[in-house]
Amino acid sequence: MELDPNHMKNLMVYIRDKEVLNFTQYLRDNGLEFKTFVDTTVDDGLTLLMRASYFGQKGIVQKLLDIGSDVNLTSHPMWTALMFAAHSGHVDIVRMLLEKGAHIDAVNSLGSTALVLATSKGHTEVVRALLEENANIHIENNAGWTAREIAEHKKFSEIKDALTNREKCGRRA
Questions:
Q1: Dist CA 2 CA 58 (whole Å)
Q2: Please, what are the domains in the chain?
Q3: For residue 139, what are the CA distances in angstroms to 45, 145, 149, 169?
Q4: Residue 88 and residue 130: Cα distance in Å, rounded?
Q5: pTM of the model as a whole
Q6: How far is residue 108's CA from residue 168's CA, in Å, rounded to a whole number?
Q7: Cα–Cα distance between 53 and 89 in angstroms, integer?
Q8: How far apart are CA 173 and CA 170, in angstroms?
Q9: pLDDT digit string, tens, across residues 2-35
Q10: H-helix segments, the chain
Q11: Is 42 exposed, middle or buried (0-12, 13-18, 19+ CB in 10 A)?
Q12: In sequence order, what are the residues at sequence separation of 6 or more whose Cβ sits closer than 8 angstroms to the Cβ of residue 21?
């Protein structure tokens, strides 16, 4: 079956608007399956997995992962689904993506990793989850800042403490 770009755009809207029931109904009504759209992008360069990760759609993320969506594809500015989930503070999705092999230390076009993005938004639980999985705390973004320096600058004391403790203990192998 040939992919109609309008189907993809409609599905992206349902994800954005957190209308999971409409998303599922749309697939049924049009005789479509998730696998048809696994790693397809639309005009903005985002896949369904990236979009669902950004908007915290755990059910859709799980379904896409179950049918083999590539967790390490990148969008135009080199963002991965993990980066979208970390930036948005969706710790459960961060864990799901890591479990499926997401590259924890992938760097986007601004030199930021998922850890730097989560730190910059103050998402403490996401930072902790990334540290538990050995995220590299020494990577600097293009501005020369590490996650700890960002946390200190933004006065995110819990995150700064977690990153400082990791520095003191060293990165686990």
A1: 27
A2: 1-78 (1.25.40.20), 104-173 (1.25.40.20)
A3: 26, 8, 11, 17
A4: 14
A5: 0.84
A6: 27
A7: 10
A8: 9
A9: 456 677 677 777 676 666 666 667 777 877 776 6
A10: 5-16, 20-29, 48-54, 58-66, 81-88, 91-99, 114-120, 124-132, 147-153, 157-169
A11: middle
A12: none
Residue 100 near residue 71 (C-beta atoms within 8 A)? yes
Question: Would you call 29 helix, strand, or coil by DSSP?
Answer: helix
Q: What is d(CA 94, CA 5) in angstroms, rounded to the nearest whole number?
A: 28
Q: How far apart are CA 83 and CA 50, in angstroms?
A: 9
Cα gap 9→18, rounded to integer Å: 14
- Name the burial class of residue 55, with classes exposed (0-12), middle (13-18) and buried (19+) by CB atoms within 10 angstroms of its CB: buried
39 three-class SS:
coil
- CA neighbor of 99 nearest in space, from 107, 91, 111: 91
Task: Tally Cβ neighbours within 10 Å of residue 106.
Answer: 17
Q: What is the mean pLDDT of the chain?
A: 87
> CA dihedral defined by 153, 158, 160, 162, rounded to 10 degrees?
-170
